[in-house]
Design goal:
With 128 residues, this protein is α+β, with helices and mostly antiparallel strands. It folds into two domains: 50 residues, no CATH class; 66 residues, Ribosomal Protein L30, Chain: A. 53% of the residues lie in helices and 14% in strands. It contains seven helices and three strands; from the N terminus they run ααααβααβαβ. The longest helix has 15 residues.
Length: 128
């Protein structure tokens, strides 16, 4: 990998999950593409049989919703603060609010990553 690409990878690695999701949206707008399109094409059978069927709309944006902070509320609050730009008080209030949205309208990978981190901290989380 070229030195220029190495530097870019290092810089991108410092982004928070929320910042990475925002970057994806901006690049999609700038280049006029959708990150979900290659996934849909890869899922099609080689024979193209799915082309004749009516396309099924795949959900591309998810909300990460905390149902219960669990016993390790402090750990959950720390993860919420890592995923968002919320302050301590706001993150605490969100952790204590069943049905509170941690992230809104994020991509599938970002949502699954956030869900995994929150569940590892002890929270009960759903994606909608």
């Amino acid at each position: 990998m070229s030195e220029k690409l190495e530097k870019l990878v290092e810089e991108l690695s410092t982004l928070s999950v929320l910042e990475a999701a925002e970057l994806v949206k901006k690049l999609e707008e700038k280049w006029g593409v959708s990150a979900a399109a290659p996934v849909a094409m890869a899922a099609m059978p080689a024979g193209g049989a799915a082309a004749a069927a009516e396309p099924v709309e795949e959900k591309t944006e998810f909300d990460v919703i905390i149902k219960d902070a669990g016993a390790k509320k402090i750990d959950v609050i720390k993860v919420i603060r890592q995923l968002t730009s919320l302050g301590l008080g706001e993150a605490k209030a969100l952790a204590e609010t069943p049905g509170g949205k941690v992230l809104s309208a994020v991509g599938k990978d970002v949502a699954n990553d956030a869900k995994k981190k929150l569940e590892e901290a002890g929270a009960t989380v759903v994606l909608e």
